[in-house]
Specification:
Largest sheet: 6 strands, antiparallel
Mean pLDDT: 92
Strand content: 35-45%
Low-confidence stretches: 1-38
Number of helices: 1
């Protein structure tokens, strides 16, 4: 398959936008692909090398490995970064833009139901930009899509690099010092975009993509913008940066146009620390934040919508739940609340953004749906996850209910069993390569052996292990990836998983998500589903065979 590297390089001599981020997540993807079962990728069509060409680059490998539920545009099968560069719900349609640097633009997928997706090409694309001395003609970096005061959707970003910086604004500008820009939609399909609209300059001691969050209009009527850096620009100007990652913060009366007047405020958030369950990891972040997100107004918020969430992807796909004391104020994370700081995925899902009922994902209450890049040698778009908050401010996630429309009539298989002996195996179903699994495990005495579900005829397991009493959590998910079982001390585990050929998405107790690849499936008939139980564990499992939704092909 393709080279496992995330390189936001310009492709021009002397200006390369690289940093420690290049190792992020690709390690996970490469390991997932390194089992020897990979077939060479088909040769892409000539149209894959241009933003306006027809890109034909089929999903590599044998057909029974190809996803039929996940959206997987052909340009995501090429090398390079495939962050969710922008996401928005507007005009009754959900839009997801993913980076396709090999094709000079952002891939654009659209859905009315969060299940079936249409590929609308690469409308946000490279153009030659020469504003105030800059000289850049490469793919736009990861950015955002927002809606301005005139109800017009606008994409925003910085160029991933430039031969020259904006020396017309600042004679000391480095080559990487290029401004934040907008391109506003010129049609309702969001396939035609305006010429660049420059909104503010950005300067830093080293080259960064400056991944911006989606600008938002807060409750004070001011616009706010934030972009990703590390915390050492005003101190050591050195990397690794002991302070960790940082989100800069600016404010303006208008997003763009005559009323625009962007002013820099104190940083929104700076930290070098992550958490997983009850385990805190100081020093886990020593460079810039990556593909950051910022949103609020979540369903279930104990504070009526004023709670805010930051996401980013250095040190893992991480999140912090917390609050600003008011618009324009710094963000304070709820470090003392287990589940309010953690990882939104423990597998290959990364670089995610939100969309939902309102384009303003910060100050307006409503639906927040997380969509990300399933990283690896072949990229795909993840399934949507509805986000909410628990009464304890835990970030809660579950598959969007619209996916239930794919359940094939008459395919439900259901059983309930209590293990009467040690290491008991219970045969459940012949299964399918397109399968939804919903299983509940409960116990009164802590199990002394691991238990869980076997999928794909034994190729993949979803394993719960309560035998190690780890600081992170007394019970852990140990396969197909590793993460804590939350809440701490629970005696009930709910596993919800969707299998789509080689891609498995798993959510445990609506808190611990993990996306994994399984490329070692021996045949299209390797589909069996079993339970493996420890004495005293009660299991209830339901499975449904699912229809295909995307990347049309034969039914399993």
């Amino acid at each position: 398959r393709q080279m496992c590297i995330r390189d936001r390089s310009t492709g021009t001599a002397g200006t390369t936008m690289v940093s420690s981020r290049l190792l992020l997540i690709f390690v996970i993807g490469c390991l997932a692909m390194a089992d020897g079962s990979d077939a060479p990728a088909p040769t892409p069509s000539p149209g894959c090398s241009t933003w306006d060409g027809e890109c034909v680059s089929p999903y590599p490998g044998v057909d029974f490995l190809h996803p039929k539920i996940h959206q997987s545009p052909d340009c995501l099968h090429l090398s390079g970064w495939h962050d969710v560069a922008g996401a928005i719900t507007v005009g009754g349609e959900h839009h997801v833009f993913q980076g396709c640097p090999s094709s000079q633009g952002w891939s654009h997928s659209v859905s009315s139901d969060l299940v079936h997706w249409e590929d609308r090409g690469r409308g946000v694309h490279s153009i030659h930009e020469t504003y105030e001395g800059m000289d850049s003609n490469i793919t736009p970096c990861s950015g955002f899509v927002t809606v301005d005061d005139h109800a017009t959707p606008c994409a925003g970003f910085r160029q991933c690099g430039s031969n020259n910086g904006t020396t017309g604004l600042n004679p000391q500008a480095h080559a990487w010092d290029v401004p934040m820009e907008l391109r506003c939609a010129e049609n309702s399909n969001l396939t035609s975009w305006s010429e660049p609209i420059w909104i503010y300059p950005a300067y830093f001691y080293r080259p960064l993509p400056y991944d911006p969050v989606r600008p938002w209009k807060d409750t004070d009527g001011m616009w706010y913008s934030s972009w990703s850096t590390d915390g050492c620009n005003a101190t050591t100007k050195k990397s690794p940066c002991a302070a960790g990652g940082q989100l800069e913060l600016l404010a303006s009366p208008a997003l763009h146009g005559p009323g625009m007047d962007w002013k820099t405020l104190a940083p929104l958030f700076t930290t070098n620390m992550t958490k997983s369950g009850n385990l805190t990891s100081p020093g886990a972040i020593t460079a810039e934040f990556v593909t950051s997100g910022y949103f609020g107004g979540l369903p279930g918020d104990p504070d009526g919508g004023s709670t805010r969430v930051i996401t980013q992807n250095n040190g893992g796909p991480t999140f912090w739940v917390g609050k600003q004391s008011g618009p324009g104020q710094p963000f304070e994370a709820y470090w003392d609340r287990v589940g309010a700081v953690g990882h939104y995925d423990y597998g290959s899902l990364t670089m995610a953004r939100t969309l939902g009922s309102d384009p303003n994902q910060v100050a307006k209450n409503g639906r927040k749906v997380l969509v990300g890049w399933i990283g690896g040698a072949v990229g795909s778009q993840s399934l949507g996850r509805d986000l909410s908050l628990s009464p304890e401010y835990e970030l809660v996630q579950q598959f969007v209910p619209e996916l239930q429309s794919l359940r094939q009539p008459g395919s439900l298989e259901h059983q309930r069993v209590t293990a009467s002996e040690r290491s008991q195996v219970v045969v459940h179903s012949a299964g399918s390569l397109q399968l939804e699994i919903l299983a509940t495990f409960s116990w009164s005495v802590l199990p002394v052996e691991p238990f869980g579900i076997t999928l794909l005829g034994g190729v993949a397991n979803i394993t719960i292990d309560c035998t190690k009493n780890r600081q992170e959590s007394p019970c852990m998910v140990t396969t197909p990836s590793e993460g804590p079982v939350l809440p701490i001390g629970t005696s009930k585990v709910v596993v919800h998983a969707i299998l789509d050929h080689e891609i498995l998405e798993t959510i445990v107790n609506n808190r611990t998500g993990m996306v994994t690849y399984h490329t070692d499936i021996p045949s299209a008939n390797s589909t069996g589903v079993n339970l493996f139980l420890e004495q005293g564990v009660t299991a209830e499992i339901a499975t449904w065979t699912l229809e295909a939704a995307n990347n049309a092909g034969p039914q399993p």
